[in-house]
Automatic annotation (TrEMBL):
A GO-annotated cellular component: cytoplasm
Catalytic activity annotation: L-homoserine + succinyl-CoA = O-succinyl-L-homoserine + CoA
Pathway: Amino-acid biosynthesis; L-methionine biosynthesis via de novo pathway; O-succinyl-L-homoserine from L-homoserine: step 1/1
Entries under Gene3D superfamilies matching the protein: 3.40.50.880
Residues the record marks as site: Important for acyl-CoA specificity: 111
Gene: metAS
Protein name: Homoserine O-succinyltransferase
Key words, A-Z: Acyltransferase, Amino-acid biosynthesis, Cytoplasm, Methionine biosynthesis, Transferase
């Protein structure tokens, strides 16, 4: 089944060139089925690049997904044309009275900024509080995972001394081998990270009731979820394209920041060589599992009848 997005969105042509089934709104309106309503809160500066990355992962499912794009505020963007934002993105006030099957909150370049110093922190908190009553399952990615832990568990911001950048091996937690989010996963898998945030498994186990699903000896906790699967935390970037880490490295290098070479990313760790992708299959599987088991299997058929009390905790 296809992903349904606005006809003129730049991602349409990119995904079609990759033989991904994209259904424009004009065609989808003639189908008599109930698509999943997913909201993407895009906090990244290069919004067109990020929205395309996430839509690519959302498309790998037998479910029809109706994606709407949300921006955090109306401040001008240095990296995205105003026309694009005005055409395809909504303000929160435009969707605040509606219910959604899923919400994805992207990362943001705020790794060393304290929460209270984030210019839109209060608005972000309002959206996350709204989601608890209006969204079946929310996925928090990278910076958003740290912000979500602050919102739900009041965990303080914890940062690493050096930036974590590269592609790292992770292991699934054998205590949760049958968790729906891990269906089809190998015991070990690769995933990219680009962050200062510290997600120690021991710290999360001590201070939360989360199911810790996958960890890395180097990167710490990678995947965790509340027991009702309504909140999923992904600390890395499974959506990244092959050159995203490279672009970040070149950007930081050109700004004189002396960045470390992303680990396990370039052949022979040589930035002059073409990077290779080793995480694509894992990323697609993670999003397919989230859509199927955390969203589709739990959401009410009629979103107008959304109720927090309707959700039950499934045994693994």
């Amino acid at each position: 089944m296809p992903i349904k997005i606005p006809d003129q969105l730049p991602a349409v042509n990119i995904l079609r060139q990759e033989n991904i089934f994209v259904m424009p709104e004009s065609r989808a309106e003639s189908q008599n089925i109930r698509p999943l309503k997913v909201l993407l809160l895009n906090l990244m500066p290069k919004k067109i690049e990020t929205e395309t990355q996430f839509m690519r992962l959302l498309s790998n499912s037998p479910l029809q997904v109706d994606v709407e794009l949300l921006r955090i505020d109306n401040r001008p963007s240095k990296n995205t044309p105003t026309e694009h934002l005005d055409t395809f993105y909504r303000q929160f006030e435009a969707v605040s009275t509606r219910n959604f099957d899923g919400l994805i909150v992207t990362g943001a370049p705020l790794g060393l900024v304290q929460f209270e110093d984030v210019i839109y922190w209060e608005h972000f908190q309002s959206i996350m509080s709204w989601a608890e009553k209006h969204v079946t399952s929310t996925m928090y990615v990278c910076w958003a995972a740290q912000a979500g832990l602050k919102m739900l568990y009041d965990l303080p911001k914890r940062t690493r001394k050096d930036k974590l950048s590269g592609v790292y091996w992770h292991q699934t937690n054998k205590a949760h081998n049958h968790h729906p989010l891990l269906r089809g996963f190998d015991d070990s898998f690769l995933a990219p990270h680009s962050r200062y945030a510290d997600f120690s498994p021991e710290y999360l186990i001590e201070h939360t009731d989360l199911d810790i699903l996958a960890t890395s000896a180097t990167a710490g906790t990678y995947l965790a979820a509340t027991k009702d699967k309504r909140n999923v935390f992904v600390t890395g970037h499974p959506e990244y394209d092959s050159h995203t880490l490279h672009s970040e490295y070149v950007r930081d290098f050109n700004e004189g920041m002396e960045p470390i070479v992303p680990s396990n990313y370039y052949p022979d760790d040589d930035p002059s060589q073409e990077p290779y992708v080793s995480w694509r299959s894992h990323g697609h599987m993670l999003f397919a599992n989230w859509l199927n088991y955390c969203v589709y299997q739990q959401t009410p058929f009629d979103l107008e009848h959304f109720s927090e009390s309707a959700f039950t905790i499934d045994e693994e």
